[in-house]
Amino acid sequence: MVIHVYIASSSGSTAIKKKQQDVLCFLEANKIGFEEKDIAANEENRKWMRENVPEDSRPPTGYPLPPQIFNESQYRGDYDAFFEARENNAVYAFLGLTAPPGSKEKWSETLVRVLVTGNRHALL
What we know:
The chain is an alpha+beta fold. The protein has a single domain (3-96), classed as Glutaredoxin. It contains five helices and four strands, in the order βαβαββααα. Strands 2-1-3-4 form a four-stranded mixed beta sheet, sandwiched between helices. The chain is globular, with a radius of gyration of 17 Å. The chain starts with a strand and ends in a 7-residue tail after the last helix.
């Protein structure tokens, strides 16, 4: 599975540039494979992104703004959803990926499983 991050390389908005950079830097730092899809340089990318962001995730007026994140063709969310997942150590789940062993997210998953099932041996 490949993560697709829809960005605008020539955005005039500093806020959009910072958000795009934040997502891309996080993915690179955590060695999560991804492809950048530039909506400013490629009309097909722009059209695809606009058509595939779900209706309930679009702004009330205008078009969805980058960055928009997909796992293959499955919409995962925008920057705000990514940021919330990152703050909650749930980025892998947000992206639809399995957290690697030793990650905070994997540890959190294991801890929840122990709390829910009462199986302390899962920690070993």
